Every structure is written in structure tokens, then in C-alpha cells.
Amino acid sequence: MKAWQYPGGHRPIELNEVPEPVPAPHQVIIDVKAAGLCHSDLMYMENGDGVMPFLPMTQGHENAGVISAVGSEVVGFAVGDVVGVNSAGVQPPLGMFTPGGFAGRLAADHRDLARVPAGLDLSLAALATDAGMTSYHAMIKAGRAAAGMKVGVIGFGGLGQIGARAAVLAGAEVHVAEVKEEVWPLARAAGVTACVKDADEWAAGAANPMAGGSFDLVVDYAGFDTTQKALNAVKRGGTVVQVGLGKPTFTVITPSILGKRIIGSLGGTVEDIEEVYALMLSGDLAPAYTEIAFDEIGAGLERLRDNQVIGRLVARFGD
User: What is the pTM assigned to this prediction?
Assistant: First the structure.
């Protein structure tokens, strides 16, 4: 079968012929129907040479499809079931430590499977397994966004758009910091109160910047020079949830942490995915995405690298 693989040496992803996967006792084989493209795919190619157990490595950790085979120890799932795969669950991360879903078929641990409800588009089902799960978990489970809270979202991209909407649905007053003004209408349509280009604006004019601003919670889906800005924006007793890893290291002003919490949030659970599925199926959560063909995955990652994507890119292999 064909698979998009990272060959090593920081070279671009390439389309190769690879063997069909065979399920281990605890695994299923999924005929992949949709696979989301993520900035983490690019990060894996930038930093993966020293940690990937073998090269080339099939990329793609945001997948949904139909089970075509089951291992001898699989329980609760059968051939023909439509599922999404938790990208950071029991099985080592797809596309980094084990082959991912930029391929016709994928082997996945049955404990990492989320059931796709009837009627949910498979592109949404795929992007929910990482962009949906990760952003939702950070906002609702780690950040505990709730009614009456003032919440900031840094970055209104593939993850930020879902996290912001989840906070709106939870009843919070949501503000977005996003440099790309062309996505501000999408943010307002999602129920966001206000948009700014730079999160520095949230704490501007504060009598004591070290004491923080007026936000109860800021979730940083960018992770460039934004962590300090998030700390400046939250008030004493407030929380910053760090999701984005735009830079490998951050520097923060030590006194600005005092009296506040900063939490790192990574991935989520099958339960998170299925909660996101329910919101998508009801129409309450409708993230922006663009479908591309399987053969366009390499070019799609370059578009992502060049910051030319609004929302999410999802490769569709079939229905």
C-alpha cells in the first residue's frame, strides 16, 4: 500500500510503497478514510531523528476509518465499526513511535478507539481525534472553563477554534488573540466576545503588571512568545494552560508566576473524543476545515508550514 513517510535527515515527507499492517492480538486494522494534518507532523520531522525507533516512519496521527480486521484479544469492536483513534492513548504516539495513518491502513490498539456516531462526517471524526480532543481537554478538563469565567484563547487555528467554541458552550466570556485578522469573523461567529492581534493587549494598562490582568483562564494554543503574555493576562488565582509548542523553550519572568497556576496539557482521552463527537453531531461545534486528496498530503504539510491554512486540513481517502 502507499504511505506518506518521513525519511529522516529533515527531508520532506515522501510517498512510498509499504507492507500492509498485520494486527497484534490487542490491535485492529483500520481502513483509513480521513486523516488530519497537524503542526505536530512538522515538529516530528524537525525533531524526530533522534527519538523515532526506525526510519522511514509513516506519519499521520489524526485518523478515522472502518475496522477491517481484529486481533485475537480485541473486545468491544468488530469488523465494519467506524472509529477514530486517540492520537496519544495507550499505544505509543502514532507517526512518531509507531506508524500513523497517512496510509491506506493503520494498526491501532482497541483501547484507543472512539466510536464515530452515525451521521457524523468522517473528516470531522478524524480531526476530533487530535485537534478536537487536545483543545477540548485543555480548555474543559485541565482549564475547567465554566460559566461566569473570563477566558482567553491564544491562537485561533486548528486547535484554538475548537477550544474557544468549547469555552463559549460552557458559558464563559471568551476573548481571542490571533494575528491573522482574516479569521476573526470565524471567531465572532463561534461566540467570541472580542479579538485582538496580540495577547499583550489583555494586560495593557494594568496598575501592577506583575499582579496580572483580569482573566480567570488563558489557554495558549500557540506557544511562541505567548506564555509570558498569558501569565500577564491572568489574575491572581488564575490559570494558564500551555498547549502550543511553537518554540522548544520559553522564558518567563519569575514573579509573574506567583499566585497563579501554569499547567501543561497534552492530548486527552477516548471520552474526550466522544464528547467532542457529540458536540459536532449536534451542530454546536462546527470547526473550519478544508479537504484535500491523499496525494496532496505532502503539499498540504508545506502549506501548513507556510502558515497558509485556516482551520484544519483533512485528507479524504474515501467514504
Answer: 0.95
